[in-house]
């Protein structure tokens, strides 16, 4: 399901085909195409058109490297803390710290994304992460130091992701290339769940936990080099216009973003389904145990939603045009959580996996929601809005997992997941009605 680092969310925009006859804005690739052929929608260049943009190739490769580094370091650090302490609680806390600091970084430091040039911010974030991970490798680093460094890396993450997302509008324009570019980064994030933990397991079999963490230092440094050498240096969005301290500017941006009814509704449409959909992932192990299944079944339950999301988003991004993607946002968002209600009947492995694949496929609504979000956010607030989106998405997923686990202490697992699906569907329906109302008003305001 959506998540920028471990399960991910995104933000598309208006769709146009590459190869515009008119001159593009300075330092941007052409993103406006000729009128569509009869019976066809614009934006059918597909993912190949996105990879044709040189700067995006650098961003994509950097994203792949840093993401794999994050996943491997999370796994290796969790193992390292357990080896040092023998405490399951501290080991679990190490993993949970990947979620908790997001809200801090996303609210207090979001202004960085608009105050400074994007390339400088991205490279600096990668270097900070590389430095933190390098200190983790030092044998004398105490456990509290490892946890503190983990928090720093997690706090930097939303600033990096928000800045990169906003920078994609400079690289790809605000049309369909941006939508598909965000989709590709999201697909990589989902694939990292399937590949990254496997790669981490292989590294831990061949190396010590500190040795595996060392590999991630290299991935962060390579990501920084790709971004420094492969992208253009563009001016900051609010250069010379910042007022007060960075936290004050960041909080002011958050108030401006959340104070807009349309933008607030779209943010919640990213966050609310993500809050509920994590329940089956959080409770996969106890549910597999209730089925009397082994590790192989647990692996299927853990990976099924990611497989559904990847397959559905590839189809939507390849086969559907911008208008079709826009039309599917609200109905797919509302229906996406309903397959989880099947848990109420305590289905076997086959039906459960099928329900999870369908729930994962429901996350493809975000490819159209991305477009609405970027259209609604004013350009000077774009970096802060994208950072807040990422921080909120990761935070609600962490809260959703924690609350699902708490509920499972008092109620059977299958009931918890089923109620999550039903309650999430109802909440998303109410939210979709609000977004629909604000869309009508937003269109009227633009036309007026």
What do you see in this structure?
With 448 residues, the protein is an all-alpha fold. It has a single domain, classed as Growth Hormone, Chain: A (Up-down Bundle). The chain has helices at residues 46-51, 54-85, 88-96, 102-108, 112-115, 118-137, 143-172, 176-206, 209-230, 246-259, 261-277, 279-282, 284-291, 295-319, 322-335, 349-361, 366-376, 382-407, 413-447. Helix 2 runs parallel beside helix 8 and helix 4 (102-108) crosses helix 7.
Query: What is the mean pLDDT?
Result: 78
What's the Cα radius of gyration? Answer: 21 Å
Q: Name the CATH class.
A: Mainly Alpha
Q: Sketch the major β-sheet.
A: none
Pfam families: MFS_1
Membrane topology: Multi-pass membrane protein
Protein name: MFS transporter
Subcellular location: Cell membrane
Helices and strands, with pairings:
Layout: H1 46-51, H2 54-85, H3 88-96, H4 102-108, H5 112-115, H6 118-137, H7 143-172, H8 176-206, H9 209-230, H10 246-259, H11 261-277, H12 279-282, H13 284-291, H14 295-319, H15 322-335, H16 349-361, H17 366-376, H18 382-407, H19 413-447
Structure in a nutshell:
With 448 residues, the chain is an all-alpha fold.
Keywords, please?
Growth Hormone, Chain: A, 19 helices, single chain, mainly alpha, 448 residues, 73% helix, globular
């Amino acid at each position: 399901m959506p998540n920028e680092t471990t399960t991910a969310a995104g933000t598309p925009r208006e769709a146009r085909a590459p190869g515009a006859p008119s001159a593009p804005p300075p330092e941007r690739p052409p993103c406006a195409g000729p009128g569509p052929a009869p019976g066809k929608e614009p934006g059918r260049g597909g993912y190949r058109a996105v990879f044709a943009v040189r700067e995006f190739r650098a961003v994509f490769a950097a994203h792949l490297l840093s993401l794999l580094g994050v996943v491997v370091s999370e796994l290796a650090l969790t193992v390292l803390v357990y080896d040092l302490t023998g405490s399951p609680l501290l080991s679990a806390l190490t993993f949970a710290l990947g979620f908790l600091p997001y809200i801090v970084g996303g609210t207090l430091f979001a202004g960085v994304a608009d105050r400074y040039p994007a390339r400088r911010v991205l490279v600096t974030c990668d270097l900070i992460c590389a430095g933190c991970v390098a200190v983790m490798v030092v044998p004398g680093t105490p456990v509290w130091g490892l946890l503190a460094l983990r928090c720093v890396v997690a706090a930097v993450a939303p600033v990096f992701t928000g800045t990169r997302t906003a920078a994609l509008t400079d690289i790809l324009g605000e049309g369909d290339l941006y939508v598909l570019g965000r989709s590709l980064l999201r697909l990589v994030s989902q694939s990292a769940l399937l590949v990254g933990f496997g790669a981490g397991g292989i590294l831990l079999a061949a190396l010590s936990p500190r040795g595996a963490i060392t590999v991630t230092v290299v991935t962060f440094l390579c990501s920084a080099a790709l971004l420094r050498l492969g992208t253009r240096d563009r001016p900051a969005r609010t250069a010379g216009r910042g007022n007060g301290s960075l936290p004050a500017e960041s909080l002011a941006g958050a108030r401006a973003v959340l104070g807009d009814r349309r933008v607030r509704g779209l943010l919640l449409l990213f966050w609310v389904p993500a809050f509920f959909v994590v329940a089956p992932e959080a409770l996969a192990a106890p549910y597999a145990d209730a089925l009397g299944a082994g590790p192989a079944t647990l692996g299927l339950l853990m990976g099924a939603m990611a497989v559904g999301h990847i397959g559905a988003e590839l189809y939507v991004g390849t086969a559907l045009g911008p208008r079709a993607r826009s039309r599917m946002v609200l109905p797919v968002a509302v229906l996406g959580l309903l397959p989880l209600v099947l848990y109420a009947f305590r289905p076997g492995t086959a039906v459960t996996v099928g329900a999870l694949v369908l729930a994962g496929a429901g996350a493809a609504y975000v490819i159209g929601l991305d477009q609405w979000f970027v259209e609604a956010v004013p350009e000077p607030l774009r970096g802060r809005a994208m950072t807040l989106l990422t921080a909120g998405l990761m935070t609600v997923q962490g809260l959703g997992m924690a609350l699902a686990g708490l509920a499972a202490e008092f109620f059977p697992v299958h009931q918890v997941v089923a109620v999550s699906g039903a309650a999430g569907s109802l909440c998303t329906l109410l939210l979709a009605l609000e977004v629909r109302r604000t869309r009508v008003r937003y269109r009227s305001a633009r036309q007026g």
